Amino acid sequence: MKIVDARVIVTCPGRNFVTLKLVTDDGLTGVGDATLNGRELAVASYLRDHVVPTLIGRDASRIEDTWNYLYKGAYWRRGPVTMTAIAAVDTALWDIKGKAAGMPVYQLLGGRSREGVTVYGHANAETVEGVLAEVARYVDLGYKAVRVQAGVPGLATTYGVSGDKMFYEPADAAVPTEAVWSTERYLAHTPGVFAQVRDEFGPNLKLLHDVHHRLTPIEAGRLGKSLEPHALTWMEDPTPAELQDSLRLIRQHTTTPIAIGEIFSGIWDCQQLITEQLIDYIRATVVHAGGITHLRRIFDLAALYQVRSGSHGATDLSPVCMSAALHLDVAIPNFGLQEYMRHTAETDAVFPHGYHFADGYLHPAEEPGLGVDIDEDLAAQYPYRPAALPVNRLEDGTLHSW
Ligand SMILES: [Mg+2]
């Protein structure tokens, strides 16, 4: 089962996606997501110029060996561009292995540990009244978990709050737009929003909130403490986590659970967070953390320390990544939650897929492999458009984390 073709497909059905498609000499195909939001072409070049030439003629059944070949063989280790490229190859090889075995990939990962994958949606609005209406909409759709983001009075824009509720896309311009941030205004406003949401929807709805790396550890400790009466399922990315020790300070001040990991590219980015139990949920993803093979390693390490998965699932991950994520989610013992932002109809058409949502759960496809493909003719109708994520400044002009 040799790889005879490897195509890197860049398409923009509403937003940019990079996809790797592998073809074997016995006619099997596999797809892997290689999308790195705002840096898409860097990964496409990494794949085309440095990876594809080494794949042709390689045995497609050797997933582990290929992972190590691409990781150790590059000499330059880690980093989002490298790990996203490796993830694409790894995901495509799992897809091929599933098709060769005649089984959905989750069967190759040990089979089902649960009946469905609990997902959370994004309820966001400028006003508290708008937030309550958005949460109600998700509850009506069957969601059992909702992430809540509200506008902050005095700020023109706020992360996570957009006009297009269902298909929020922050990468909105070729050159980054600039937003203004005030930690003081945010900390004063946010606990009251959650008090009203909890009061309106009762104790059983899982509520989540994304801080988007905007607080210092002690500020995050204060926020977490102020949110304790409203029993959040998690507080996401409370502070930048390059300094993993800093999470200890937050832990000293609050029992609000913490979720981190959407920008991590490997196990070494979260080793201390997991082994010292400084987080409760690890949010690394298939596409950015080295594929199914490497993310499984992260989840297995996390399981030893009672840390559960909570994988990133924003619209900047293609349906190929979501398909792969669902096979892992349904198989691992320590699954927590899966983020699920719906793609547009144009994106869904480019990536025909077999997973489906029902009653608050996503279900992976039952067909052999990952159960997803890319329509290359349709993809060709949507050429790449430069789109960058915004940047953020404090009110005095100081650059801050977005
Ligand atoms: Mg996030």
UniProtKB/TrEMBL annotation:
PROSITE patterns: MR_MLE_1, MR_MLE_2. GO terms for biological process: amino acid catabolic process; carbohydrate catabolic process. InterPro entries: D-mannonate_dehydratase-like, DgoD-like, Enolase-like_C_sf, Enolase-like_N, Enolase_C-like, Mandel_Rmase/mucon_lact_enz_CS, Mandelate_racemase_C, Mandelate_racemase_N_dom. It comes from the Bacteria. GO terms for molecular function: magnesium ion binding; mannonate dehydratase activity. Residues 128-257 form the Mandelate racemase/muconate lactonizing enzyme C-terminal domain. This is Mannonate dehydratase. It comes from Asanoa hainanensis.
